[in-house]
Design brief:
The protein is α+β, with helices and mostly antiparallel strands. The chain has five helices and four strands, in the order βαβααααββ. Helix content is 36%, strand content 17%. It has a four-stranded mixed sheet. The longest helix is centred in the first third of the chain and has 12 residues, at 15-26.
């Protein structure tokens, strides 16, 4: 049996992120944990996430965060690259948790979403 390699962009303060990590562990995944608030993803990593998730940058953003409002990120004239740069600079804006495995990605909201990519 092959062990699935998975990367989780994890925020240990988030209950959904903790539940998703536990689910990956229960399913025997070989997990790389990236605490993205301490080690923000690069622009290239966000591009990969977006491609695998089939989302736009705006769809990956947490719009209820104070930083979203403070940085005026609701402005529809902002480009994808500007939104991605904002997520790199302020990783709290990135939806969580994100799991990458088998050249696929899923957001663990609910945590069971990630089972489809293992």
């Amino acid at each position: 049996m092959t062990t699935t390699k998975a990367t989780i962009y994890h925020n240990p303060r988030c209950s959904k992120s903790r539940e998703t990590l536990a689910l990956l562990q229960e399913n025997g995944a070989d997990i790389t944990v990236v605490e993205y608030l301490k080690t923000p993803p690069t622009i290239a990593e966000i591009h990969t996430m977006l491609k695998l998730l089939g989302l736009t940058a705006r769809q990956l953003m947490r719009t209820k965060e104070d930083e979203y409002k403070a940085q005026n990120l609701a402005d529809t004239s902002l480009s994808e690259e500007q939104l991605i740069a904002a997520m790199v600079a302020t990783p709290k804006l990135i939806e969580r948790p994100i799991v990458l495995a088998n050249n696929k990605a899923a957001i663990g909201r609910p945590p069971e979403n990630v089972l489809s990519i293992l």
